[in-house]
Design a protein that fits this description.
Elements lengths: L1 E7 L8 H15 L8 H15 L8 H9 L12 H18 L7 E5 L6 E8 L35 H8 L1 H27 L5 H11 L5 E4 L2 E6 L1 H8 L14 E8 L2 H16 L5 E4 L5 H4 L4 E4 L5 H7 L4 E4 L9 E4 L6 E3 L10 E10 L6 E7 L2 H11 L2 H10 L9 E10 L2 E2 L3 E7 L1
């Protein structure tokens, strides 16, 4: 019988020599696989963090430490503007997921890299065997094989049993019972210890995700998409020949429209974070692209909607809640997040194209259908980068420890909203910061 134990190298007891050897063997298989053969940087990254974790040095695996040791950055380099470590870690996570998806049989240990962190997680494959207690040699307790039992029957006069020998052998059964009784107690103690040690510990991360993890059907991740306009070949040639100050007149026939064609990179980053987080917990989501998904297709599935104005599921389920999205009183202004409890309070961007100026905001919303009690989760940003930080936020253990510290008792069974803020330098986001939370 086999069982799986997820052991975080940062918080669990040090692995045994056998576990270390198994992990190093698995690392060697990963590094020589097709998934990693094309990227030496990813091989170096994974080998570095795994060996440090197995050596008991997991706490040192911070973004700054990796930037200095692996990528030659200065000790005081600005991690907020230099995303080399985050980008490489995301690439390693993607390649690990690709590697394990191609494995036809279970491996002795699975190596994962949690979203939002750089400490590898090891999922050991434990073999449980039933063992019989084997008594240790003891000169005071002769083996039944070495000393056969002596008959003390009085109706056999030819057996000469002295009072001393009778007493000696009469006490043996009690001593044997004592030995085997002690062994049974020891086995019970070990069994209880193993049960407690292997019993999964419920974290705040688990409490948030439990309604989706417990659902009988796979969750559906709904991606926002936009239509893409492309010049027809003749129009493209005319446009390419334009000189500064010149113009051309184009009609609808000169433009081709592709429906549900474009998905932004930050949305894909959010999808990757959520997918990896769910797969670590044994739940494989279904990813669906486009805004044309019908209710019949999604009935019975928990929905994880990414995007705000570009995702109708967010518009439908977040409208009317305390924190919601709108475009001002005229419905044509810049997008904003509004607090219905305090109408004077809102968060907005000065511009959204081509990129936000310096910040982006997002709302994480989890609600339960009042009739079916099915969970709905929205990860929605004002701009696309808000979608990314919302996906990263819900996928990190530390996020829900911070939320739980602000939450009422029983929060895991309540509807909730979390407003997030991130700073932007170019297209690089900072770690999401909680602006406000609300439970009901």
């Amino acid at each position: 019988m086999t069982s799986s134990l997820a052991q975080s190298s940062a918080h669990a007891s040090p692995p045994s020599r056998e576990q270390v050897d198994a992990a190093l063997d698995e690392l060697a298989r990963i590094l020589t696989s097709d998934s990693f053969s094309s990227s030496k940087r990813c091989r170096d990254f994974l080998e570095f963090v795994v060996k440090h974790a197995l050596a008991g040095d997991a706490d040192s695996l911070t973004e700054r430490f990796l930037g200095v040791e692996l990528f030659g950055r200065a000790v005081d380099y600005e991690t907020a503007t230099d995303s080399i470590v985050r980008v490489r870690a995301n690439d390693v996570r993607r390649r690990l997921a690709q590697y394990y998806s191609s494995q036809r049989s279970a491996t002795p240990v699975r190596i994962d890299l949690m979203a939002g962190g750089y400490i590898p997680e090891f999922h050991w494959k434990l073999q449980e065997t039933q063992s019989q207690p084997s008594p240790q040699p003891n000169s005071a307790l002769p083996s039944p094989i070495d000393r056969p039992p002596v008959s003390l029957q009085e109706d056999h006069p030819h057996v000469a049993a002295t009072e001393e020998s009778v007493g000696q052998h009469a006490t043996m059964p009690g001593r044997v019972r004592l030995f085997w009784g002690s062994g049974a107690v020891a086995l019970i103690v070990v069994a209880v210890w193993m049960t407690l040690a292997l019993r999964p510990h419920t974290t705040n991360f688990d409490r948030f995700w439990q309604p989706i993890l417990d659902a009988p059907s796979s969750p559906v991740v709904s991606l926002p998409t936009t239509d893409t306009l492309q010049f027809q070949p003749n129009a493209m040639q005319q446009f390419s020949r334009l000189k500064p100050g010149e113009s051309i007149n184009l009609g609808l026939a000169d433009v081709q429209t592709f429906h549900n064609w474009h998905v932004s990179l930050p949305v894909l980053q959010a999808t990757l974070s959520v997918t990896l987080a769910l797969e670590r917990k044994g739940k494989t989501p279904l990813v669906r692209q486009g805004t044309d998904l019908k209710m019949d297709e999604l009935r019975g599935h928990p929905i994880i909607a990414i995007g705000s104005f570009s995702n109708p599921w967010t518009q439908q389920n977040v409208a009317g809640l305390r924190f919601t999205f709108d475009r001002g009183d005229s419905d044509s202004g810049p997008p904003r997040i509004r607090d219905a409890f305090n109408p004077q309070r809102s968060w907005s961007l000065l511009r959204t194209y081509p990129e936000p100026q310096a910040k982006d905001y997002a709302i994480v919303t989890r609600t339960f259908d009042p009739v079916t009690h099915e969970p709905f989760l929205s990860l929605a940003g004002l701009h696309s980068f808000g979608n990314q930080i919302a996906g990263e936020f819900v996928s990190q253990e530390s996020s829900w420890n911070e939320v739980a510290a602000r939450a009422p008792a029983g929060w895991e069974k309540k509807n909730l909203q979390v407003v997030l803020e991130t700073n932007l330098v170019g297209t690089t986001t900072s770690s999401p910061k909680i602006v406000d939370v609300y439970f009901w």
